[in-house]
Specification:
Order of helices and strands: HHHHHHHHEEHE
Largest sheet: 3 strands, antiparallel
Strand order of the largest sheet: 1-2-3
């Protein structure tokens, strides 16, 4: 793979500029950006504490910024894919590397970031609503410092959403519809579809967006087994109760191009068999 020449880059960018203006986007991307100040009741509510309206309004605006940034990145991704489709194989590879992969990387992070930001903004807003509506409701959140001079706690996603669900209990149907919609972002189905890209990119090694090999040798822990002789003098592999073994497995990996939207334009590595090689095995007792 080689960098685009100056002339190739200019032609590609001109093609992108024409495409982003003329492309017929799919329905979710065809709508305009969300407007600011979509909740007029923030201004008229009787908040218990001064300046809470500014806090709720400001955080809702930042959430709107996040959604509009994600929307814009998806539109740019769609436009670049249309440009890539008109390139030769070698040009497509270079255009993806220089222009497309950074946008795809950004878009694959947005579901997780947006879910957490929704949770943060909703928790603060609903907490203030509860304070204004119920004199017996305490101004205490789970992540508050335990001591007056302590530091705020950093909650896990499960802890944050458990707190939010508890605060939302007085809402119609206990906020079930809202929590269901929130948890549909960055769901297990999405992680499976994208091969857990954002988590691996943050904490390990992410899969390639198009074609390539990553983590060709991986360590896994599985139930330990041993060979047991049978009456006919053959051997059968059986589980060892209560024990686990670590094994090294050699694998090939090619992401599903439909999951990422960056379709390979050239012949690449095909996914091979999941070959389990017991290069190293150490059994240990599971507590």
């Amino acid at each position: 793979m080689e960098a685009l020449t100056t002339d190739e880059r200019r032609v590609t960018l001109a093609r992108y500029a024409d495409t982003i203006e003329a492309l017929a986007y799919p329905a979710p991307l065809a709508v305009p950006p969300l407007p600011y100040d979509i909740c007029a009741r923030i201004e008229t509510a009787h908040w218990q504490i001064p300046m809470i309206d500014q806090l709720v309004r400001g955080e809702l605006r930042e959430l709107t910024n996040t959604l509009n940034e994600w929307h814009g990145a998806l539109r740019r991704w769609a436009a670049w894919l249309d440009v890539v489709a008109s390139c030769t194989d070698e040009q497509a590879w270079n255009v993806q590397w220089e222009f497309v992969e950074s946008i795809a990387f950004q878009c694959l992070f947005y579901p997780s970031a947006t879910r957490d930001r929704f949770s943060f903004v909703a928790t603060n807003a609903l907490h203030q609503v509860r304070l204004a509506a119920n004199d017996g409701y305490k101004d205490v959140l789970d992540h508050d410092p335990k001591k007056p001079d302590g530091k705020p706690r950093f909650l896990s996603r499960t802890e944050r959403e458990t707190q939010l669900a508890r605060i939302a209990t007085p809402l119609p149907q206990g906020g079930v519809a809202f929590m269901s919609a929130l948890q549909a972002l960055d769901s297990n189905d999405y992680r499976d579809l994208t091969s857990n890209f954002w988590n691996l990119a943050s904490h390990a090694i992410a899969p390639r967006l198009t074609i390539g090999l990553t983590n060709t040798v991986v360590r896994e822990v599985r139930p330990a087994t041993h060979l047991v002789e049978q009456p006919d003098r053959t051997f059968k592999e059986e589980l060892i109760p209560g024990e686990a073994a670590s094994v090294l497995r050699v694998r090939r990996y090619t992401p599903d191009p439909d999951a990422y939207g960056v379709r390979p334009r050239r012949r690449g590595v095909r996914e091979g068999p999941r070959l389990l090689l017991r290069v190293r095995s150490s059994a240990r007792r599971v507590p």
